[in-house]
Write a structure and sequence with these properties.
Elements (H helix, E strand, L loop, with lengths): L3 H18 L5 H29 L10 E5 L2 H11 L5 E5 L6 H4 L5 H35 L5 H9 L5 H6 L1
Antiparallel strand pairs: 1-2
Helix pairs in contact: 1-2, 1-5, 2-5, 3-5, 5-6
Length: 169
């Protein structure tokens, strides 16, 4: 399974390919490059969804009780240092496999911090994915190649490559 650093490297590689398209004049080569970008973004989506699944508790959108835990100053500092994302509250949702509301009195602070790191990493992944895809869209639009319009529309429809949909549930 890909980690956040690997996904970011893949995003950067995809952006480099999109930037190369700016100088390309051959429509057939542009179409090939657009197909490569589409394949790379689909692979990125798969990696992002895999990472998201690994950090998302089961039945995240289910009807279980939600527990919100305010992090200490020290926890917030460590999480920000690790992920680059500021988190003040971690949200845990009861599911069939776990009952955070019942476990909370005996849960170690390290477990809460780990969950907060996971949520922060997932948020960063969504933000970084959106930023990279929006840059790719801008480059593709600048090329003004009709064959790329469908690819551009697909990317504009979901610049988080499916990641944003997970956090809405």
């Amino acid at each position: 399974m890909a980690d956040l650093d690997e996904i970011q490297r893949k995003q950067a590689d995809t952006l480099k390919l999109a930037l190369k398209m700016v100088d390309e004049k051959d429509p057939e080569r542009l179409k090939e490059m657009a197909e490569q970008i589409l394949q790379k973004t689909q692979a990125l989506e798969k990696s992002a969804l895999g990472l998201a699944a690994s950090v998302t508790p089961p039945d995240r959108g289910g009807g279980g009780e939600e527990v919100r835990v305010l992090l200490t100053f020290e926890q917030r500092e460590r999480i920000a240092a690790q992920t680059g994302v500021g988190v003040e509250v971690v949200t845990l949702r009861d599911s069939g496999g776990s009952s955070w509301s019942a476990q909370m009195p005996t849960t170690e602070p390290q477990v809460i911090e780990k969950m907060a790191v996971n949520q922060a990493a997932a948020a960063r992944l969504t933000m970084e994915t959106r930023k990279q895809v929006e840059a790719i869209i801008k480059q593709l639009k600048a090329l003004n190649v009709p064959e790329l319009e469908e690819t551009i529309r697909d990317l504009e429809r979901d610049p988080t490559l499916g990641r944003g949909k997970k956090s809405e549930g």
